[in-house]
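[Meeting: bench + compute handoff]

Bench side (C.D.) handed over the final construct sequence. Compute side (W.E.) agreed to return the predicted structure before the next meeting so the bench team could plan truncations. Sequence as handed over:
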Amino acid sequence: MSTNSSSTDSNTPDSNSTESSSTSAGSSNSTETVGTRQERFDRGLAVLTAVDGEAGQRVVDALADVHPELAHQIVAWGFGEIYSRPGLKPRDRQLVTLGMLTALGGCEPQLEVHLNAALNVGLTPAEITEVLLHTTGYCGFPKALNATFVAKKVFGERGLLPVAAQ
């Protein structure tokens, strides 16, 4: 990963700082030390690698020459702070993510990454297609169909077709 966290700006803590944030869950005065910029990045990279494997790293690498700070934030914040929280299991986070990306529409590249991630964390093709069917009632057929065709591509690449009927 070529986007280490050595560069900083006025909105980003430097690599030697420790950031504290108030949390509303639990007590109103509790603070949580989230670590240095580099520690958050390292924690996030470990989670990203465990969940997305090479696909996640490819996204980060693709941003290196155009927006390395976005790559850093995806890793450090998205995976180091949010995805690594204990409140949901990785498979449940992927269920939510699949539903949200389907609802948004136009996110097919990200949906492809997260379909692979969903399989990596233990969801089955049958569970994934059930999620996509469930989105139809909330998002409509066009978005559910688009997501299903991305799933078909991912399943085909992984040798998981045909999906057993439920």
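W.E. noted at the follow-up: Strands lie at 20-22, 31-33. C.D. will use this when planning the next construct.
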